[in-house]
Each structure stands twice: as C-alpha cells, then as structure tokens.
Amino acid sequence: MENTNSDMDCTPITPNIKRNSPNILVTGTPGVGKSTLCKKLAETTGMQWLEISKIAKDNNCLEEFDEVYKCPVLDEDKLLDGLEEVMCQGGNIVDYHSCEFFPERWFDAVFVIKADNTTLYDRLKARGYEGKKLEDNIDCEIFQVILEEANNSYKKHIVHELLSITESQLQDNINRICLWLQNWFQNNNT
C-alpha cells in the first residue's frame, strides 16, 4: 500500500545521531526510474546524489565479474567503509538497486520505486537486458523483492512505496519527497 504524504514520518530514525540534513535511500529494481528521480531530486533540493554503482566503480569497490548477470560483484564492506563519513554528515540521496546491506542508522527515509511489468520489461530490453538477467529482474519486481528487503531492513514507518511509470508520477514523487524533506527540517529544527 502506498503511503500518503500525511503518513510520511519525519522523526529521526536514530535520535542519538544528529545530522543537519537527512539521508534518504532511493531503491528498486533496475529500470524503475531511480536514477532519473535522484538526478531531478538532487537538482531540486541541492542534496548530494550518491550513485552507488558509479562510486563503486570509481573507488575499486568491485570484485569478480558475474558472467550470468554480466556485471561486476560489489565489495560491500569496502564501499560501506568508504561512505561512512559522508553518510554521517547527512544531506545525501543514495541511489541503488539493493538496500539490505546498508546500515539502518544511515537513513531517515527509504523510498522504494516501483513500475508495472510491461513498462519495466520495455525499459530493461532497451538497456540490453536479456535471458536470465531480464527474467530475474522482472521476477524481482513481480514478487516485490526490494520492498520486502526494505521492510525487513528498516523500520517500516520510514519505508515508502512510489509508483514511477509516467512523467506525471515522476513529478508527483519529487514533490512528495520534497514535502517529506520540508517536514523533516521542521520536525528537526534545522
């Protein structure tokens, strides 16, 4: 069920960690529109957009190459160690297709982006996904694997589902997240 604006809790997830700006995680199956949303959100808010895939590549946080999925395997420990300081400062939009390995204390809100299967299939095919990689990503969306990961890894009141198929929905999602940010700043007196 999709949260409404009034349901979005802006209470700090860990009261003993005081940041001047929140950190948010934008996650979801590849192709749902995470990066498009994050780019526009960063432009609108001035928050720092952390593209985890790019950061991992630029900082040698990759291990062997997975021949089945045609992509490198992330060295999660090395990545997390490298991001700890910047995450403690706050003001970050983290963009990644998985979420369960990030520390809970890093995030004040988690936004799980979703798309219908037809739209997702078309987007992934356009990216060159095929075979097992294509099938597994579609199955991931059908079975809401990322949403389940988020609900199992973070307090449920900070996890929000957002549908992102149309340009109008993209703008609505940006507006909703900006409203959440405004409420966070009001509730945290910064």
How would you sum up this structure, described in words?
The protein has 190 residues and is of the alpha/beta class. It has seven helices and seven strands, in the order βαβαββαββαααβα. A hairpin with a 4-residue loop joins strand 3 and strand 4. Helix 1 packs across helix 7 and helix 4 runs antiparallel to helix 5. The longest helix is centred in the last third of the chain and has 21 residues.
Topology diagram in text:
Elements: E1 24-27, H1 34-45, E2 48-51, H2 52-58, E3 62-66, E4 71-74, H3 76-89, E5 92-96, E6 109-114, H4 117-126, H5 131-142, H6 145-153, E7 159-163, H7 167-187
Parallel strand pairs: 1-5, 1-6, 2-5, 6-7
Antiparallel strand pairs: 3-4
Helix pairs in contact: 1-7, 4-5
Task: Give the strand order, joined by hyphens, for the main sheet.
Answer: 2-5-1-6-7
- Taking all Cα atoms into account, the compactness measure Rg is 16 Å
> Describe the biggest sheet?
5 strands, parallel
**Strand share of the residues?**
15-25%
Distance between the termini: 31 Å
Poorly predicted runs of 5 or more residues = 1-15
**Order of helical and strand elements:** EHEHEEHEEHHHEH
Provide a concise account of the structure shown.
The chain has helices spanning about 35-45, 50-60, 75-90, 115-125, 130-140, 145-155, 165-185, and strands at about 25, 50, 60-65, 70-75, 90-95, 110-115, 160-165. The protein is an alpha/beta fold.
